[in-house]
Structure to design on (802 residues):
C-alpha cells in the first residue's frame, strides 16, 4: 500500500479520476459493508434504492473513517516512543477501551513500543489482540478508577495480573499506567514497563506521563482540524464553485469583563441579531473553499470583518437567527439580501445562486452556517442539493462540532474534581503544621478563647515594618517559606479584617498554610510568587492608598484572592496549556486562571478552611465575585481588554480637585472599582519587574528557567522546536526579551498607576531602573553579535574575490 499522503495528493490532483473511482468502485463496496448495520437495502450491489440522504451518510462515514483511524494511531505511536525514552522505560503500550454489547473491555492497540520499533510492528491487528475486562489487572483498574497507577514492585501489588506476561513470556517488574481521558470518559490506557537504571518509576516520571497524555488528548479533540478535514475531503461531492463555513461563537453568558463597557455606558447594549437560543450572532471564524479556479484554495479567516464577501449579504446571519435552509435561485433579483452584483474579489467570481444552511448540534443549537455558491453546471441548487448538503451539515454538527466539546473547552468543569482530589489527599494543613504557627493550638477550638488566640497568633507573626511588608521593594529572598505564611497572616491583621469579620484564628492559620501547600515546588510559579502577589496587593491598598475606594470586605477578599491567584500552578509545562486547543484560545477562556479560581473556591467550601465562614450570605457572595474578578484578571489576554478602560478612569480623575470627588467617582460605581481592581491584580502579578535590580535579575532567570523546562519537554517529547522564549538555546536573547516585555506590557501599568496615585511611583521608578539595566545587557550582547558578524564577513570576503 502506498503511503497515505501520496495517495491523497494524487487524488487531489486528479479530481476527475477520484470522482470516477469513488463512483464506480468505492461506493458500491462501501454500501455493501456499511449497510449491514444501519440501513436496509433490497439489492446491495446496486444503489438505486439508496436515497440521496443515505448516500450522503455513507460518504461521510467514509470521511470519518479516513480521517480518524490511522492518523490518530500514528500520533499515539510517536508519543509512546517519546514517553518510553523520557521515562527510561523498557517498553510502552496503549490499550484501547471499547465496549462490546455494552460491556467495557480493554484491548491491545499499540503493543511493546520502544524508541526504535516501527509503527507497523507495534500496531496490533484485530486477530492478534489481547482482550480483557476492566476489572482485571492494573491496566483494567486504571481504566476503571481513571487514575494514574505507579507500581514500584508488581509482586507486592494484589491488582497485578500476570496473564499477559504468561502469554508473551515477558517479566514485568515495575510499571506505571495512565488513563487517557476525554471529559469524564476513559478512552484508553498508556502503560510503561520496567524502568531502566532504577528500581521504580519516579514522581517526575508521573509528571511526564501526565503531560504527554494531555498531548494525546489534544490530538483527539482538535475538532476544528477534523471539521476542516471532513469538509475538504467531501468537496468533490459538492458540485459548487465555492463554499464557505462560518463558525458561531457558542458563548451564552458574557464574561464579566466583556460587560464592563456596556455597564459603564461606553457601549450601547447589544441589539443585533441573536440565535434562537439567545446567543449574539458572532462568526468567530470563516473557512472559505474556493474551488472555481484551476487551483483550489482554502482560506481560514479568524475574526472575519462584517463586509467579508460571504457574510456581507446578511444571509448567513439570517440563517443563524432562524435556522431555515435558504435556497436563492437568482441572487441578483433578490431584494431582501444585499448580495454583491459585481465580482466579490480580484478572481472575478460573481455570485449567481446560493444555498445556505445551519449546522446544528445534538442540543439543536446552531453552531455554524454552511453556504454553498454557484452550482458548477450553472443551474440553481435543487432539492437534491438541499438534501445532500443538509446531510453534510447534520453530520458536521452531530459528530464533529458537537456542543459538548465546546462546553468542555470553555468551562472545563471536570477540573473541579481534580482540585478537590488534590486538596483532600495532600494539601490540607495538618494539626502539627498548624502548631508550627499557632503554638498552643489544640484540636478542640471551642476550648480556646478567640481573643487569646488572636493575641497568640499576632505575637507569632513578624511585625510589618521589620520585614518591609509595607514597601513596594519588599523581597521574599531573606524570608523562609514558612516565614512567608506568617507574613501573610500579618497582612490580614494589618488590614484590620480578622477581628472585624470574625475569622477564627485557627481557620486563618489553617487556610494560609493550606494555600502555601497548594502551590507546587516549581521554579517560578511557586508559593513565593503567590505570596509576592498578595503582598503587593496589600501594599497597593495600604501604601499606595488605593484602599480608600474599597470597603474592608473588598480589601480582605482582594488580598486573599491575590495570595491564591496561581494556586496549583504546574509550571508552564502543564495539563492546562491552551497550546493546541485553538478554541480555548479564541474564546479567551483563561483556562489556567479558572483552575486557580476553582481551587481557591474549593478551599472556601470547607468550613475548617473558610476564612469567610462568619460572613452573611450577601457578603459571602460579594467575596466570591471578587475572587472571580481578581483571579481571572491575571490572564494577560484580558489585560489588553481593560487597558483603555483603566486609562479612562485615570484621565477622568486626574483633573478632579478634591479627594472626595475622586472617591465618589469610583466608590459609587461598582464597575470602575472592578476595573481598577483587575488592573491592580496585573500590577501585582508583574511586580517582580519593578523590584530592585538584584531581585529582578534573579527572578527573571527563574521565569525563564520555567519556560525553558517547557521548551525542553517540547523538544524531547514532541520533537518540536520551541518558540524562542521557551528555547534555552536563545538564553542570550533574554535581556532583549525583557526590554520588549517592559516596553510593550509592563510600562503602561505602572506609568498609569503612578499617574493615578503618586504613592505608587516607586514601582514605576523600579521598572525604569530595570529597563535601563536590561538595555545595557542587551546592547552588550548586540555588540558581541555584531562583532561576530563582522568577523564572518571578513573571512568570507576574500573567498568571494578569488
Ligand atoms: Zn501569577
Amino acid at each position: 500500500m502506498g503511503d497515505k499522503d501520496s495517495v491523497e495528493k494524487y487524488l487531489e490532483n486528479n479530481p476527475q479520476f477520484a470522482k470516477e473511482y469513488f463512483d464506480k468502485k468505492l461506493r458500491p463496496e462501501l454500501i455493501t459493508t456499511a449497510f449491514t448495520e444501519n440501513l436496509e437495502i433490497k439489492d446491495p450491489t446496486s444503489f438505486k434504492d439508496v436515497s440521496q440522504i443515505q448516500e450522503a451518510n455513507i460518504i461521510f462515514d467514509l470521511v470519518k473513517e479516513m480521517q480518524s483511524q490511522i492518523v490518530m494511531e500514528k500520533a499515539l505511536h510517536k508519543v509512546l516512543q517519546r514517553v518510553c525514552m523520557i521515562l527510561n522505560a523498557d517498553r510502552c503500550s496503549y490499550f484501547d477501551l471499547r465496549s462490546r454489547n455494552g460491556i467495557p473491555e480493554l484491548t491491545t492497540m499499540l503493543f511493546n513500543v520502544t524508541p526504535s520499533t516501527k509503527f507497523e510492528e507495534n500496531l496490533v491487528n484485530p486477530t492478534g489482540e489481547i482482550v480483557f475486562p476492566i476489572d482485571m489487572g492494573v491496566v483494567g483498574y486504571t481504566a476503571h478508577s481513571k487514575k494514574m497507577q505507579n507500581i514500584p514492585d508488581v509482586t507486592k501489588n494484589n491488582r497485578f495480573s500476570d496473564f499477559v506476561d504468561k502469554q508473551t513470556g515477558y517479566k514485568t517488574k515495575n510499571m506505571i499506567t495512565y488513563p487517557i481521558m476525554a471529559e469524564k470518559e476513559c478512552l484508553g490506557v498508556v502503560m510503561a514497563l520496567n524502568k531502566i537504571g532504577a528500581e521504580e518509576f519516579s514522581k517526575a516520571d508521573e509528571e511526564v506521563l501526565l503531560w504527554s497524555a494531555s498531548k494525546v488528548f489534544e490530538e483527539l479533540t482538535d475538532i476544528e482540524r477534523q471539521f476542516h478535514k471532513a469538509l475538504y475531503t467531501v468537496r468533490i461531492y459538492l458540485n459548487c464553485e465555492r463554499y464557505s463555513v462560518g463558525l458561531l461563537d457558542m458563548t451564552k453568558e458574557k464574561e464579566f469583563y466583556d460587560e464592563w463597557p456596556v455597564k459603564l455606558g461606553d457601549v450601547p447594549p447589544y441589539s443585533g441579531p441573536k440565535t434562537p437560543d439567545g446567543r449574539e450572532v458572532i462568526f468567530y471564524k470563516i473557512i472559505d473553499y474556493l474551488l472555481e479556479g484551476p487551483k483550489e484554495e482554502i482560506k481560514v479567516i479568524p475574526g472575519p470583518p462584517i463586509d467579508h464577501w460571504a457574510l456581507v449579504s446578511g444571509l448567513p446571519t439570517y440563517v443563524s437567527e432562524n435556522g431555515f435552509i435558504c435556497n436563492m435561485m437568482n441572487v441578483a433579483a433578490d431584494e431582501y439580501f444585499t448580495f454583491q452584483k459585481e465580482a466579490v474579489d480580484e478572481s472575478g467570481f460573481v455570485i449567481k445562486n446560493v444555498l445556505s444552511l445551519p449546522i446544528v448540534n445534538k442540543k439543536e443549537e446552531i453552531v455554524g452556517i454552511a453556504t454553498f455558491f454557484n452550482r458548477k453546471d450553472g443551474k440553481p441548487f435543487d432539492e437534491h442539493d438541499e438534501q445532500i448538503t443538509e446531510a453534510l451539515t447534520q453530520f458536521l454538527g452531530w459528530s464533529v462540532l458537537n456542543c459538548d466539546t465546546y462546553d468542555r473547552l470553555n468551562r472545563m468543569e471536570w477540573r473541579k474534581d481534580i482540585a478537590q482530589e488534590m486538596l483532600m489527599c495532600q494539601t490540607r494543613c495538618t494539626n502539627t503544621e498548624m502548631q508550627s504557627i499557632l503554638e498552643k493550638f489544640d484540636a478542640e477550638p471551642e476550648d480556646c478563647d478567640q481573643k487569646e488566640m488572636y493575641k497568640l497568633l499576632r505575637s507569632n507573626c513578624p511585625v510589618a515594618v521589620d520585614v518591609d511588608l509595607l514597601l513596594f521593594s519588599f523581597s521574599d529572598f531573606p524570608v523562609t517559606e514558612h516565614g512567608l505564611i506568617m507574613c501573610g497572616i500579618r497582612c490580614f491583621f494589618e488590614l484590620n479584617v480578622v477581628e472585624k469579620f470574625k475569622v477564627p484564628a485557627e481557620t486563618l492559620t489553617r487556610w494560609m498554610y493550606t494555600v502555601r501547600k497548594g502551590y507546587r515546588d516549581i521554579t517560578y510559579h511557586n508559593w513565593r510568587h503567590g505570596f509576592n502577589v498578595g503582598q503587593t496587593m496589600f501594599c497597593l491598598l495600604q501604601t499606595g492608598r488605593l484602599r480608600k475606594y474599597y470597603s474592608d470586605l473588598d480589601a480582605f477578599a482582594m488580598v486573599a484572592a491575590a495570595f491564591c491567584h496561581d494556586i496549583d500552578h504546574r509550571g508552564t509545562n502543564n495539563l492546562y496549556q491552551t497550546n493546541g486547543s485553538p478554541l480555548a484560545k479564541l474564546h479567551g477562556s483563561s483556562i489556567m486562571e479558572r483552575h486557580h479560581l476553582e481551587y481557591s473556591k474549593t478551599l472556601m467550601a470547607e468550613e475548617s478552611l473558610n476564612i469567610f465562614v462568619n460572613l452573611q450570605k450577601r457578603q459571602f457572595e460579594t467575596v466570591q465575585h471578587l475572587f472571580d474578578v481578581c483571579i481571572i484578571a491575571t490572564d494577560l489576554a484580558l489585560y489588553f481588554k481593560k487597558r483603555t478602560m483603566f486609562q479612562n478612569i485615570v484621565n477622568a480623575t486626574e483633573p478632579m480637585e478634591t479627594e472626595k470627588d475622586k472617591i465618589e467617582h469610583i466608590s459609587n460605581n461598582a464597575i470602575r472599582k472592578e476595573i481598577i481592581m483587575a488592573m491592580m491584580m496585573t500590577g501585582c502579578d508583574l511586580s517582580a519587574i519593578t523590584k530592585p535590580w538584584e531581585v529582578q535579575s534573579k527572578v527573571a532567570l527563574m521565569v525563564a528557567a520555567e519556560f525553558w523546562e517547557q521548551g525542553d519537554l517540547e523538544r524531547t517529547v514532541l520533537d518540536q522546536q520551541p518558540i524562542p522564549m521557551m528555547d534555552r538555546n536563545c538564553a542570550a536573547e533574554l535581556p532583549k526579551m525583557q526590554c520588549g516585555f517592559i516596553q510593550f506590557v509592563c510600562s503602561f501599568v505602572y506609568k498609569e498607576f503612578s499617574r493615578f496615585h503618586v504613592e505608587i511611583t516607586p514601582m514605576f521608578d523600579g521598572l525604569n531602573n530595570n529597563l535601563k539595566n536590561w538595555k545595557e545587557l542587551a546592547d552588550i550582547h548586540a555588540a558581541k553579535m555584531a562583532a561576530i558578524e563582522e568577523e564572518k564577513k571578513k573571512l568570507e570576503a576574500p573567498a568571494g574575490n578569488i
In short: The CA atoms of residues 325 and 357 lie 5 Å apart. The longest strand covers residues 89-100. Residues 529, 533, 565-566, 634, 685 surround zinc ion (CB under 6 Å). The mean pLDDT is 80.
